[in-house]
Structures are given as structure tokens and as C-alpha cells.
Design a protein that fits this description.
Mean pLDDT: 88
Helix content: under 10%
Oligomer: single chain
Number of strands: 5
Order of helices and strands: EEEEE
Shape: globular
Distance between the termini: 22 Å
Strand content: 25-35%
Radius of gyration: 11 Å
Largest sheet: 3 strands, antiparallel
Number of helices: 0
Number of domains: 1
Length: 72
């Protein structure tokens, strides 16, 4: 586990870019391994530590649900 975040089911774009069907819209809320590379790097975000409090694309198959308390 490199981070804890929230998956957003709404929206099919991030910063005006369309998401592929195999990607989810995620906000990183807590960084566990700051120097781990993100699976879908951008020009500004290459490492998990740079993704804190930012919407990023994350492959759905790499997500693990730890709580379904708040559906967004």
C-alpha cells in the first residue's frame, strides 16, 4: 500500500482529460510511500508524495476498498 485515498464515482475526466474505462478518479488523502511512482504519471505528478490532495487517475485493479462509509 502506497497511499490512502478516496475514489470518486462521478466524472469521467480529470483536469479536462478523459479517463479510460480501466481507470478510477482518486484523491490521495494520506501518503504511505512518498517516493513510489504513480501508475499514471502526468507532467506534474510522478510520485505518490506529489499527489497529496489532488485528483489523479489510478488503475481500478490496483485499488483496494477499505471502507464504504462515505460514497462520493
Amino acid at each position: 500500500m502506497v497511499a490512502i485515498g478516496r475514489v470518486y464515482a462521478i466524472g469521467s475526466t480529470i483536469h479536462t482529460l478523459s479517463l479510460r474505462e480501466d481507470l478510477s478518479r482518486v484523491v490521495v488523502e494520506k501518503v504511505k510511500v512518498a517516493d513510489a511512482g504513480v501508475p499514471e504519471p502526468t507532467s506534474k505528478i510522478r510520485f505518490v508524495g506529489q499527489a497529496l490532495c489532488t485528483f489523479i487517475a489510478w488503475p481500478t485493479y490496483l485499488l483496494k476498498v477499505i471502507s464504504k462509509k462515505h460514497k462520493v
